[in-house]
Amino acid sequence: MARQIAIVEDEPAIRANYADALRRLGFEVQTFASRPDAQSAFAGRLPDLVLIDIGLGDEPEGGFELCRALRQLSPTLPIIFLTARDSDFDVISGLRLGADDYLTKDVSLPHLTARINTLFRRIDALRRPQGAEAMLNQGELAIAPERMRVSWKGQDVPLTVTEFWMVHTMARNPGHVKTRDQLMRDAQVVVDDATITSHIKRIRKKFIAVDPSFDEIDTIHGVGYRWKT
Prior knowledge:
Layout: E1 4-8, H1 12-24, E2 28-32, H2 35-44, E3 49-52, H3 62-73, E4 79-83, H4 88-96, E5 101-104, H5 109-126, E6 136-138, E7 141-144, E8 149-152, E9 155-156, H6 161-172, E10 178-179, H7 180-187, H8 193-210, E11 217-220, E12 224-227
Parallel strand pairs: 1-2, 1-3, 3-4, 4-5
Antiparallel strand pairs: 6-7, 7-8, 8-9, 10-12, 11-12
Helix pairs in contact: 2-3, 6-7, 6-8
Keywords: DNA-binding, Phosphoprotein, Transcription, Transcription regulation, Two-component regulatory system
Protein name: Proteobacterial dedicated sortase system response regulator
Domain OmpR/PhoB-type: 133-229
């Protein structure tokens, strides 16, 4: 049975383009132009994944409100923000509300598809019995690769898909410097150096929110980053 993806986007042309592209990839697609329409439909049945824009019609923060409501309905529903807004404030706001990933509208279709399929793999892993996967442990860090869960000192650290793979790449070989190219390859993203830097900043902030003394990621200027041994 085909996975069902809902797109909540107020621009008709953009909505249609994404819907057509995802249908060609074999997904069932529902589309909604406003938060109230989407929320009304989701009250009856949740899709398998939701793509949400932040500004919806006359609601500049409508996507944030919808994300909050969806998280109350389901803690595991995959939610991706797909928006033109790329400020750190918006990204962090979206992730704090419980979104799994945050992508801007210049994202390529292969990258978007990779993100969607990764989240579906995580959902499949969550449905398997606990303990069926291998854990990666480095000191206080625990990583469940299939479930894409990271914890520090026993507390969950909410990372996006991209951030998860960056942490996984560094922690798998502590003490080894990972270049920006290696981080991009493992996270399946192609971005500039400034974007990698902002991802690392957000990763640090999320760990510090759990543990103010966190200081496990070294910046090796001009080269990349490493997880301390």
